């Protein structure tokens, strides 16, 4: 049932009125006088003038948007903020983005860096330790490049598998997203670099992203997208949160008191600061009172520099209390101390490219997902005749475009036509899968065909024992994918090659799930996502079995777009990317509520092509003995896992629950476990209590209903093979 816009507006207005009566800036939820970062921040701010405090609330363009001219003192980046003179605080050198240190418009002479694979690859490892290592790598490179804030930590849920920035995020489940993104944030901040949790919130599409209103009932939002952000905050403790471009229930996210004050700062007790997205600030007093603490690059990307002279005028006129300015400055300075920016300033030095590339390679090796392996075609024989076709596999691996784009070390592997419009030509990292395959299997006879001619590719396929087709899908910030198909003629190419040689393996380098009309005609499918700087060797090692695949999907692959909650994206076929972002007053009612992705499929009894949580490897596993119990309010699932194959491998058993009142199943926990052949181990998974509850927005709390809960031990979201039940008494929990 669709929810009326009037309800959303009334809810937002009511929240705003309530917050005006009890201003959040009158107190700090975590400031009990003993927190060292809070104490040090207060000491610094005590000697600052109002003007100095306000200078902390406004950063300028770092050179990435103004013709490659860095401001005085700036390194050349997304934004720069000069600290007040004599404060002892560091200047803020702010860099994009979540996959590595960006060099916008090649502004820095030596700005190339190592890139992680896409956020989807990291999330598909289901390995929080790997996510921390990945975050630590890019945090270290940022620190060695002179930056102390990196704009990484994307936690928006995949509500649409065509989303242009899905590759930066983690998938469609709030628990999995929160834990994996939070772990990456923790890794970044271990290097004394602030990580920014973004884009808060409901920035789940690029179409109309600057103006669209994402309309959703508050309780449903708390149980889905906001739960992902909440868990990421608890896991990673980011120094900053970035509010998004879009409107949420008709109010811009960066001036939305329900999001910024009631939920983030009051319910979640967030002590850090909120920065705006670039071009996401629309007011002065309204934004400040709603909870925005810092305007980003406001001299260039916003209509006016709101938090400069306009905010000063608002304070002078009494429209914004000075106590709010004190709170804004306190939150910013507190994060500088909490993450170590003051005590551990960056030291510019050469990057350890070899070590960092190995981290990116390991991330890709763990995150690539084996979807199909008929007849055990993989791993490949090291002496086979192998035809490698397409995807520029002779040169490198593709990456996603936009503000997360990292400048490749060694230069771009594929020269494009020189497209000047955003985001430019697709960038290929010089990490060739073909060269890596030849290095892994020097006895194999490996040939390459570009795939531009289907007839030529078919001839190569017929002459080979096995074929490996590389297929790409370029997605980027600013535009959603017009369809779920692979780029160019890839579907026709794969179909023809598989008809000529059914021993065909497809390696997909994509930023989203794709439709696979040829799926049943090929023997193997490896989803490699955007593989990053170490992608070539990682893919080769997976194909030849030097490492076994262990990734599991974090997004559902549908059989058709008609299975999606929103089969059509309004305006997505527009030719101009920038027009895509400004469809004024467009609304999208998320009437699927909290049933995102696999939960939508479960609710509607749709069978996906490949379900959430799915992933194969080169051995086999079984599990048994599922027991569920409650002790002192904590619910735990216990079971046994067995490696029944002949190779060591990694399994990711998942626990799902459904509530007594029915509804779709929910991921409630998982364990990533490595077992030797024949080895067995007992595993316990603690179930997050919020996955056993509904959010009661009227009373602002979580409520666990009384009754019988169903629990599944599963290999993926559609696995019904092992079930148990448990009875719980109802209880409420504070948010």
From TrEMBL:
Key word Hydrolase present in the record? yes
Gene3D superfamilies recorded? Glycoside hydrolase family 3 C-terminal domain, Glycoside hydrolase, family 3, N-terminal domain, Immunoglobulins
The UniProt keyword set, sorted, is:
Hydrolase, Signal
- Pfam families, per the entry: Fn3-like (PF14310), Glyco_hydro_3 (PF00933), Glyco_hydro_3_C (PF01915)
Fibronectin type III-like domain sequence ranges: 651-717
GO biological processes: carbohydrate metabolic process
Q: Which InterPro entries match?
A: Cellulose_deg_GH3 (IPR050288), Fn3-like (IPR026891), GH (IPR017853), Glyco_hydro_3_C (IPR002772), Glyco_hydro_3_C_sf (IPR036881), Glyco_hydro_3_N (IPR001764), Glyco_hydro_3_N_sf (IPR036962), Ig-like_fold (IPR013783)
Q: Name one GO molecular function term.
A: hydrolase activity, hydrolyzing O-glycosyl compounds
- Provide the leader sequence positions: 1-20
Q: Which family does it belong to?
A: Belongs to the glycosyl hydrolase 3 family.
PANTHER family tied to this protein:
BETA-GLUCOSIDASE
Q: What is this protein called?
A: Glycosyl hydrolase
């Amino acid at each position: 049932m669709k929810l009326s816009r009037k309800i959303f507006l009334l809810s937002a207005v009511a929240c705003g009125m309530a917050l005006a009566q009890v201003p959040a800036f009158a107190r700090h939820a975590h400031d009990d006088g003993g927190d060292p970062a809070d104490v040090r921040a207060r000491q610094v701010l005590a000697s600052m003038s109002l003007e100095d405090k306000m200078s902390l609330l406004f950063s300028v363009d770092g050179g990435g948007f103004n013709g490659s001219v860095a401001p005085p003192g700036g390194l050349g980046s997304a934004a720069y903020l000069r600290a007040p003179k004599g404060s002892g605080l560091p200047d803020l050198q702010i860099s994009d983005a979540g996959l590595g240190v960006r060099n916008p418009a090649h502004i820095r002479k030596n700005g190339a860096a190592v890139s992680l694979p896409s956020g989807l690859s990291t999330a598909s490892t289901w390995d929080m330790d790997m996510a921390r290592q990945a975050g630590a790598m890019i945090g270290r490179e940022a620190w060695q490049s002179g930056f102390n804030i990196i704009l990484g930590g994307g936690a928006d849920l995949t509500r649409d598998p065509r989303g242009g920035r899905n590759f930066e995020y983690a998938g469609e489940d709030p628990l999995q997203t929160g834990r994996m993104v939070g772990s990456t944030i923790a890794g970044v901040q271990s290097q004394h670099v602030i990580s920014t949790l973004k884009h808060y919130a409901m920035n789940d599409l690029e179409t109309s992203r600057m103006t669209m209103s994402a309309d959703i009932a508050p309780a449903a939002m708390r149980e889905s997208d906001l739960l992902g952000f909440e868990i990421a905050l608890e896991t990673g403790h980011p120094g900053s949160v970035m509010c998004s471009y879009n409107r949420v229930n008709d109010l811009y996210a960066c001036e939305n008191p329900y999001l910024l004050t009631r939920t983030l700062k009051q319910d979640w007790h967030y002590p850090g600061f909120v920065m705006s997205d670039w071009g996401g600030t629309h007011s002065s007093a309204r934004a400040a009172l709603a909870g925005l603490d810092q305007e980003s690059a406001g001299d260039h990307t916003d209509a006016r520099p709101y938090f400069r002279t306009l905010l000063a005028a608002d304070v002078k006129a009494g429209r914004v209390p000075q106590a709010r300015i004190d709170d804004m400055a306190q939150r910013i300075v507190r994060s500088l101390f909490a993450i170590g920016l003051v005590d551990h300033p960056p030291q510019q030095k050469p990057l350890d490219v070899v070590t960092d590339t190995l981290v990116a390679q390991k991330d890709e090796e763990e995150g690539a997902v084996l979807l199909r392996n008929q007849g055990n075609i993989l791993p490949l024989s090291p002496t086979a005749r192998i035809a490698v076709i397409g995807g520029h596999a002779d040169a490198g691996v593709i990456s996603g475009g936009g503000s997360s784009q990292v400048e490749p070390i060694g230069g771009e592997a594929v020269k494009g036509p020189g497209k000047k419009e955003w985001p430019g030509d697709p960038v290929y990292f010089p990490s060739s899968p073909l060269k890596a395959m030849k290095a892994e299997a020097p006895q194999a006879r490996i040939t390459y065909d570009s795939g531009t001619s289907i007839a030529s590719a078919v001839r190569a396929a017929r002459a080979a024992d096995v074929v490996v087709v590389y297929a790409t899908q370029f997605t980027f910030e600013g535009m959603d994918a017009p369809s779920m198909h692979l780029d160019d003629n890839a579907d026709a190419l794969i179909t023809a090659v598989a008809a000529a040689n059914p021993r065909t393996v497809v390696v997909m380098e994509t930023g989203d799930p794709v439709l696979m009309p040829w799926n049943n005609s090929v023997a193997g499918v490896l989803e490699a996502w955007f593989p990053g700087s170490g992608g070539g060797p990682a893919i080769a090692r997976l194909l030849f079995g030097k490492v076994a695949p262990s990734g599991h999907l974090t997004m559902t692959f549908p059989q058709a777009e008609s299975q999606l909650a929103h089969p059509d994206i309004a305006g997505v076929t527009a030719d101009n990317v920038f027009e895509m972002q400004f469809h004024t007053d467009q609304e999208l009612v998320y009437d699927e509520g909290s049933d995102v992705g696999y939960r939508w499929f479960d609710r509607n009894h749709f069978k996906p092509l490949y379900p959430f949580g799915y992933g194969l490897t080169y051995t086999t596993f079984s599990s048994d003995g599922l027991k569920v119990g409650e002790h002192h309010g904590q619910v735990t699932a216990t079971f046994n896992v067995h490696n029944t194959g002949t190779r060591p491998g990694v399994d990711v058993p998942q626990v799902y629950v459904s509530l007594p009142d029915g509804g779709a199943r929910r991921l409630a926990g998982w364990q990533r476990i490595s077992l030797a052949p024949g080895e067995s181990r007992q595993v316990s998974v603690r179930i997050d209590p919020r996955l056993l509850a509904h959010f009661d927005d009227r009373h602002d709390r979580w409520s666990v209903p009384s009754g019988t809960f169903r629990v599944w031990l599963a290999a993926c979201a559609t696995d019904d093979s092992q079930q148990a039940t448990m009875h719980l008494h109802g209880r409420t929990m504070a948010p």
